Amino acid sequence: MSSEPQVRELGEQALLKRLYAFCPPELVGDDAALLRVAEDHFLVVTTDLLVDRVHFSDRTTSAADVGWRATTANLSDLAAMGAMPLGITVGLGLPGELSVAWVEQLYQGIVACLQPFKAAIVGGDVCRSSVTTVSITALGQVPTNRTITRDQAKPGDVILATGVHGASRAGLELLLHPEQGQSLEPLERSRLIQAHQRPYPRLDVIKTLACLYPAFRIAGMDTSDGLADAVLQICQSSQVGAQLQRRQIPLPPGITDWITETQAIDWALYGGEDFELVLCLPMPLAETFVQQFKEAVVIGEIVEEPIVVLQDCLGQYPDEILSLDKGFQHF
Amino acid sequence: MSSEPQVRELGEQALLKRLYAFCPPELVGDDAALLRVAEDHFLVVTTDLLVDRVHFSDRTTSAADVGWRATTANLSDLAAMGAMPLGITVGLGLPGELSVAWVEQLYQGIVACLQPFKAAIVGGDVCRSSVTTVSITALGQVPTNRTITRDQAKPGDVILATGVHGASRAGLELLLHPEQGQSLEPLERSRLIQAHQRPYPRLDVIKTLACLYPAFRIAGMDTSDGLADAVLQICQSSQVGAQLQRRQIPLPPGITDWITETQAIDWALYGGEDFELVLCLPMPLAETFVQQFKEAVVIGEIVEEPIVVLQDCLGQYPDEILSLDKGFQHF
């Protein structure tokens, strides 16, 4: 086996690409798969695996928070497709010496996260494993004329972010180094920690879109792997480029009193796990949406040239070309 | 944490029962969950987690076989609900040093198993883990008037098994101890090994039932955890009992030339992973079904008294009361 390429050498994205060869091409490459099960609706499916010490740690995350975050990650993938949730399944790999209380608290976190959306745990499996593993599959539904996918962006589209970025990364820093961020107000501080421990899936965005428009063309993705990754993936799928405005990227309140602006922008672009949505939509739709949904911010524009450039309108920083190489790799 | 009860102390069934408290009661306790998404159909969902050295081993199972078996286990759960598959998702936890070839062969096995049923891999996730973990969620559909559940058995129902039992357990024995079973014909031997490495989900049973009956009442379950477990679970859910006939339990051809009948019956009852179905249905349905589906065998009858008894019509063995305690426990 020594001369064969290893998973580690290939990396996550390259491995996924090899595995895509085994899947129907129309079903891969988005946050979730769309299955046509009725005339007017798609069934939407997404799955995530979380592993102890890779995706969570007792140092920064309680069992209930692990459950909450895993659920949010999956519901966020549904939101990224424009879908509302039906339910989730939970597969657990558990070391024998793990406390039963940990498992029950995990479930409490899952149910608490699902509850506002009237979704439920609809199935599961438990088995022995040397490492605590949580596998969640979320099921949702979306009307066929209101699907959001990565490949629908067109030059001229407005790029929106549905909220601040870098908050989860900042919250992690505060959990790991509680002596940091003395300049933050108590409320700012607790919001950053909350952003890391109890992020919300942006299903409220999907509800608002459904109220505003009976049908639409919107390209989108969630920012679980960072804002830069989301914009880059959308541009790659849609074969377009983007001009992002550095000064318009929404940052957490008070963050630049603690860290430099350059650091804050870096966390926003690459920190990941903010579980916001990036949406690319025609100007008229964007205008009415931003009026209704106050947290949404215009961060740039889709262009024809297939590169993603970060621009500074004040000219303080040179234009920066973003690439997928800097994104989060799981291996 | 030392004084808190551990997962190991509680055991799999007791842990599952505690976790059921977090789920809607109508969705748990069967092989898969039924979600009402349309007037005339249920969406059916089931999930399974497989862990290296717990559920598979390089010694007895190639990567392609792991993929095949995991897929069969999930499709078998769909069959146990009367459903035909729509697709599956695959979540993988992978050590960095695992060969890429192993992962691709796993996928080849999955796709090969799905192919006859025109189902596909519709989504997935890969991440780093210290232990190879395969999480599969299968999605299917069943007409509302043709669902099979565990709780529908009634006294007087005929109990059918859809094929031989103990073959997977016997195949495992031959893989671990190739010097054994010298009395077996080459074809018998290869069929037992095949039963372990490449078991088939009994979706052909579901197709036959759909052809024969537009609607029905059938209680059923798959025998992934053994024939005894399936009958016991059905009886518990339906609040009935069963009389099983020892001499009618279908055993693999040639098996009693190799091992004792007592051993063979033990493997049939408790070996597990045969992925056959146990069906409980009214006599007239059972008669037409057995005529159409030649592998199906009558193994007993549902009775009122809520115990499961294994009887020997020849009187050679005393009546034996079966209980869930002897079933397979994953912790």
TrEMBL record, chains A, B:
Q: What is the lineage of its organism?
A: Bacteria, Bacillati, Cyanobacteriota, Cyanophyceae, Oculatellales
- Provide the catalytic activity annotation: thiamine phosphate + ATP = thiamine diphosphate + ADP
Q: In which pathway does it act?
A: Cofactor biosynthesis; thiamine diphosphate biosynthesis; thiamine diphosphate from thiamine phosphate: step 1/1
Species assigned in the record: Thermocoleostomius sinensis A174
User: Where does the chain bind Mg(2+) 1?
Assistant: 47-48, 125
Assigned keywords, A-Z: ATP-binding, Kinase, Magnesium, Metal-binding, Nucleotide-binding, Thiamine biosynthesis, Transferase
Q: Where does substrate bind?
A: 55, 273, 328
Q: What else is known?
A: Reaction mechanism of ThiL seems to utilize a direct, inline transfer of the gamma-phosphate of ATP to TMP rather than a phosphorylated enzyme intermediate.
Tell me which EC number(s) this protein carries: 2.7.4.16
Kindly list the positions annotated as binding Mg(2+) 2.
48, 77
Residues given in the record as Mg(2+) 5 binding sites: 225
Q: Which domain of life is it from?
A: Bacteria
Q: Where is the PurM-like C-terminal domain?
A: 154-311
Assigned protein family: Belongs to the thiamine-monophosphate kinase family.
Question: Which gene is transcribed and translated to give this protein?
Answer: thiL
Identify this protein by name: Thiamine-monophosphate kinase
Any idea which positions bind ATP? Answer: 107, 124-125, 150, 224
Q: Which GO terms describe its biological process?
A: thiamine biosynthetic process; thiamine diphosphate biosynthetic process
**Role description:** Catalyzes the ATP-dependent phosphorylation of thiamine-monophosphate (TMP) to form thiamine-pyrophosphate (TPP), the active form of vitamin B1.
> Which residues take part in binding Mg(2+) 3?
31, 77, 222
- Which NCBIfam families does this entry report, sorted A to Z? thiL (TIGR01379)
Identify the residues that the record assigns to the PurM-like N-terminal domain, covering every copy: 29-142
Q: Write one Gene Ontology MF term.
A: magnesium ion binding
Ligand binding (Mg(2+) 4): 31, 46, 77
